[in-house]
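Good morning C.,

I know you're traveling, so I'll keep this short. The sequence:
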Amino acid sequence: MPLLSQAIKLIRSGTPFAIEMLMSVAALGALLIGATSEATMVILLFMLGERLEAYAAQRARRGVSALMALMPETATVIRAGQRTQASIAALQPGDVIEVAPGSRLPADGELLVPHASFDESALTGESLPVEREQGDKVSAGSLSVDRLIQLRVISEPGNSAIDRILHLIEEAESHRAPIERFLDRFSRYYTPAIMLLAAATIVVPPLLFGAPWQEWVYRGLTLLLIGCPCALVISTPAAITSGLAAAARRGALIKGGAALEILGTINTIVFDKTGTLTQGKPQVTDVIPAQGVSKAALLARAAAIETGSHHPLAKAIVQHARTVAPMLPVATAQRALAGVGVEGLIAGKNQRQSTR
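The tokens, ready to paste straight into the viewer:
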């Protein structure tokens, strides 16, 4: 029986009065008095609690796996003007790496190009791409939005932003909820107390008062079965698992039972990320042209230059323009201007559009 084997392991490790021991003795006692259904229910409830705890742990491991998926397995390293593929474990501080548009950074790096946009939502929750200038630090796992970039590696192998987050998650998983720690302390006293009381019920009446042994053995084992704390054993993992699952369905990831229990004491929440309270998808609400320029003309020119850009503001402009005028003018020689926006040629005339 898994429950009994677990109790024996705990005894060998120096924990003889765990909840597992009490439930094992109660189940064996129930079998001795013929209460097979009660014995089955004790074991069933305990195993259900164990399964719920395993389920919660599995959800946490899936979160870690999803985080690990943000890291590419290889990186393009530039050495002496030559590009080679290297494992991310081989990257050292000072190496120059190249990251293509739509790819994620394999290590923390210092930006070497004048200007670039990064999607850091997987790390920070910020829904809009963040603009970085030359010399800025960019975390591993960030996604290069719209251009080929070069960075100088600044993190040691195994010590990138992703690695540090994984370490924090592992620490959080080892921190049990206060109610779980209370149950551990409770079992140290409750288990020997209920076993001692059951033993006294079996022994004292026959020895001191000449009562029949069979009747009082039955009563003692019944007391042991009734005293088995199935509700406590199953309620805590069930409540924690339900809370974590309910939060995940609503888009909130909670590290574990300890963090979940702390949430019950919170009375003020401060949001500092735009995407936390919004969809993170900009939309054009107003078009305000300069004097002498029509709204349609301004919108068409801006959309023509922004066509093909991955910037969220550019996508919003193009989408709005196509709902107003499906046919847009064709722009050529489009290029991004660091810290300014984009520019291009429409019918041979230079047009500049700011996205800041």
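Safe travels,
E.
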